Amino acid sequence: MSADDFGTTPDGRPTHRFPLTDGTLEVAVSDYGATLVAVRAPDRSGRLADVVLGHDHVSGYVSGDGFLGATVGRVANRIGGASFVLDGRRFALTPNEGEHHLHGGGERSLARVVWEVVDVSPQRVEFHHVSPDGEEGYPGRLEVTAVYEVVDGEVRLTYRAGTDARTPVNLTNHAYVNLAGEPVGTVEDHEVQLFAQRWTPVDDGQIPTGDIAEVAGTPLDCRRAVRIGDRLPALVDTVAGGFDHNLVVDGEPGEVRLAARVSEPTSGRRLELWTDQPGVQFYTGNQLDGSVVGRAGRAYARHTGLCLEPQQFPDAVNQPAFPSPVLEPGEAYLHRSALRFSVD
């Protein structure tokens, strides 16, 4: 299967865009950052429109800072103080959000490298990358595989990893979704339902306190579908500036289960997130400020897209009460998630 030219990185690396389809969805992924570039999904009238934010050329991903559609890691989300202690040794990571470490760090994070293409077909593409010992401060040589597959109206994502030394691993995809389709407004009229009774509170730096609390009585209680715009006023003056919270997904980690459902009333499009991960970060694009210019010259403003990031808990490597993200040599890291599209 042929790939489309996606441009060249500033250091001369060629990149590619791979079209995938199951006859219902038209999807594109890139070897730069193992990135989900586009998802064209039908509305209730059968009209296709792109429902993820993105760029038409690799230069947009190289210059942008929003992690649009990227595979993020080695460790997604935040690590407090950009460091952790493992086996009595402190490891200093790249700080890229003030004093903290976010989404794997800087120029050699998984979102910033060109992955090797292992296999590609009309419905599936498999990428591979080796992160050497010490990259972005992490211990161990990490081999990572990312697979995108389009089947029966779903975009299925599978991440696998192995290491030769103990190291934390937490991989996820950082797609921004707007079910209204391009050209996009905000997601305030979207309705969201989160299958989570608990969440992990954070301090003023958005680093978890180590507690796990009930969502009942908080703006994070989306156990029944709520209009996003109705909840934002209670959150815009907080440190998050909107939704940017880790929810503890109901059910048993390791089993694929329904974590979230989002719908957009005008188009009728609906998205369900299914995952085997213990948590999901629900984020409403609070840091988008118009400086990121996407497809067709569209500036992505605040709340233009939402993210549902299946994950292990943030800063888990520093939180003894959280499930451990440490991968042992000889163990196999596995993450399975699916974005399931339909119409009302």
What does this structure look like?
The protein is mostly beta strands and 344 residues long. The protein has one domain: Beta-galactosidase, Chain A, domain 5, CATH 2.70.98. The chain has two helices and 27 strands. A nine-stranded antiparallel sheet has the order 11-12-13-14-27-23-22-17-20. The longest helix has 6 residues, at 58-63. It is globular and about 60 Å long.
Question: How would you concisely characterize the structure shown here?
Answer:
The protein has helices spanning 58-63, 228-231, and strands spanning 4-8, 14-21, 26-30, 35-42, 48-50, 71-72, 78-79, 83-86, 89-92, 101-102, 116-121, 124-131, 142-151, 154-163, 167-168, 172-173, 191-194, 198-199, 213-214, 226-227, 244-248, 257-263, 269-275, 279-283, 307-311, 326-327, 333-343. It has 344 residues and is mostly beta strands. The protein has a single domain (4-343), classed as Beta-galactosidase, Chain A, domain 5 (Distorted Sandwich).
Q: What's the overall average pLDDT, rounded? A: 96
Task: Please report the distance between the alpha carbons of the first and last residues.
Answer: 34 Å
CATH topology: Beta-galactosidase, Chain A, domain 5
Q: Which spans have pLDDT < 50 for at least 5 consecutive residues?
A: none
Helix content: under 10%
Examine the secondary-structure arrangement and name the CATH architecture: Distorted Sandwich
Strand content: 35-45%
Based on CA atoms alone, the radius of gyration comes out at 19 Å
Largest sheet: 9 strands, antiparallel
Q: What is the H-and-E element order?
A: EEEEEHEEEEEEEEEEEEEEEHEEEEEEE
Query: Structural class given helices, strands, pairing?
Result: mainly beta
Task: Please list the strands of the largest sheet in the order they lie side by side.
Answer: 11-12-13-14-27-23-22-17-20
| Beta strand count | 27
Identify the CATH class.
Mainly Beta
Shape: globular
Number of alpha- plus pi-helical segments: 2
Number of domains: 1
